[in-house]
Amino acid sequence: ACCDEAHMLALAPIPGAVVSTPSWVLRHRKGIDAPWTDVYAFNTTEFFEKDYKVMSHYTSTHSDSWFTYLATCCIMLIDKDDTPIGWVTFRGPHFKRWERGVYTKEEECHNEAERARAIQTFFGIEITQEEIACIKGLPSELK
């Protein structure tokens, strides 16, 4: 069931890394008895605008990168004490809000108008008709 999914943040070495300094690793599992899968890793190294431009180029242009064919977004939910309490994600047509250990809302979109409404609802971002038209013909378009 979806509510058995879990995420955690761990300070751990990254297998195969040249430098063995531990990094923050976001881990995910699809059920209570499922193994943890490393999803993303980061450290506290400072980056500058030029660094981000170079790093972003591959992920936004190369056909091996799922960012070129799958629309995706994630935002952390923070309580009034600045404590993370969950997240909202969308991946392709699927939107999920996970808060305090349970999915509180899920939605599947079937076209771009529905996805634009869900982005407004889940993320508070208004997508214009002109912006909706920009995805037409791309692999990530919902038809």
Helix/strand order: EEEHEEEEHH
Alpha-carbon Rg, integer: 17 Å
Shape: globular
| Percentage of residues in DSSP E strands | 25-35%
Alpha-beta classification: alpha+beta
Structure description:
This protein has 143 residues and is of the alpha+beta class. Helix content is 22%, strand content 34%. It has helices at 49-61, 112-123, 129-134; strands at residues 6-12, 23-29, 37-42, 72-78, 84-91, 94-99, 102-108. The strands form two sheets. Strands 4-5-6-7 form a four-stranded antiparallel beta sheet, covered by helices on one side. A three-stranded antiparallel beta sheet has the order 1-2-3, with no helix packed on it.
Features:
143 residues; 7 strands; alpha+beta; three-stranded antiparallel sheet; four-stranded antiparallel sheet; 3 helices
Characterize this entry briefly.
The chain has 143 residues and is α+β, with helices and mostly antiparallel strands. Helices cover 22% and strands 34% of the residues. The protein is globular, with a radius of gyration of 17 Å.
